[in-house]
């Protein structure tokens, strides 16, 4: 592709000056000569020159042979898109930005490319940024999402993908000039590109109103400000337009000649020089592709080795942790085994002690069973004694009632005796009033009767005293028996409580120190409880003194009377 320096407006026609230009990049360097006309510019500030391609290729993948050419052309197209000289939709702008980031930074690495790493890069046109209400972080997130999908693409491949998308844009490679169809007509725009000439409305640079492809143009000429396009088809009208400056007509003519020449050359067989350049470029690309593949394999192997190393280190750390945990578990197991052995020994000793206590408890149980059998026999004997005591108490009550009746009879006899004595005294007094002999006779008979009465009274008093003594002896003997029975009951009750308490304690020790009630089976014989026995004894103790008091009272009354 031919390269030249774009003419700058305002240059004066003087003899040109030649100087050498040297371009050095990271991949290659290039040196060539340039002619620049003399110009009047301020000398107090530096002037920036842009090295640009004048003619755009139709198919970038086929025509851009050298990598340095591709890189420089990529930078030019990228700048024109960012400066909005080439219109690009927002979606295409984001995709192109992702390829530009891939070409600059290489593969996406989330550990290295942190959020905000694109803050200093100009990637999107200002029109796109102002069209949507999105922050820089949101745009960066969208670009990074596409950028992450381009992993494995080399720099030249990313630049080529960028140019493939850019060459399909409507304004790609079009140079616009302001023209008029006639001196009084409305202003129009003339577009010159690799496909032909296009006529646009001033407000629309995307869709041309009329197009003249290079294959349909027979001749292009201009005379001062008038420009004439003659189509190949003679039936079509000649198109004429006017430009404002003669110098612009010359530039238009140069662009037309150059693009037409390239258009015709692309449709012919390449020259040997071009074929050699393409073959060398193809070999270079193949070699670089092979190198990239080898590098990618080495990188992949290195990454795999690093991952394997990390995995081995992680596994080593894991095994070390497992070994440490196993050692700790072993130590804990040993401690637990020692503790369990100690507990087992203690449990064995406790088992022996419990077995010994169980044997003792069994012996005590057998002894208590024997004692319980003896206690049952003693209870049976006690019940028999209680029944005898009850019978004796009934007999005493009956005897006391009989004695009471006898006392009533004795009272009655005593009353009759008193009445007889009184009558005898009266008769004695009557006799004494008679004569003396008669008195002596009467006195003897009266004395005889009196002696008779006195002897009966003495005999009766002696019998009563004898019966009283016998009754007192029997009462005393019964009280002694009741006291002895009471003491035996108390001792048996206390012994039974002690035996039950001892049996409870032995059973509690034999069953793991848990106190449980001991059930001693009873016989089917209905026995008298201790409360009934105490009630009976209390009743007897209350009844006997009353009987004795009553009897003493009767004897006292008789003794006083006698």
Automatic annotation (TrEMBL):
InterPro entries documented for this protein: Band_41_domain, ERM, ERM_C_dom, ERM_FERM_C, ERM_helical, Ez/rad/moesin-like, FERM/acyl-CoA-bd_prot_sf, FERM_2
Keyword annotations from UniProtKB, A to Z: Cell membrane, Coiled coil, Membrane
Taxonomic lineage: Eukaryota, Metazoa, Chordata, Craniata, Vertebrata
SMART domains: B41, FERM_C
Pfam families, per database record: ERM_C, ERM_helical, FERM_C, FERM_M
Protein name, entry field: FERM domain-containing protein
Organism for this UniProt entry: Amphiprion ocellaris (Clown anemonefish)
Superkingdom, taxonomy of origin: Eukaryota
GO cellular component, one term: plasma membrane
Domain FERM: 1-267
Topology class, membrane: Peripheral membrane protein
Ranges in a coiled coil: 278-427, 468-502
Cellular location(s): Cell membrane
UniProt-recorded Gene Ontology molecular function terms: actin binding
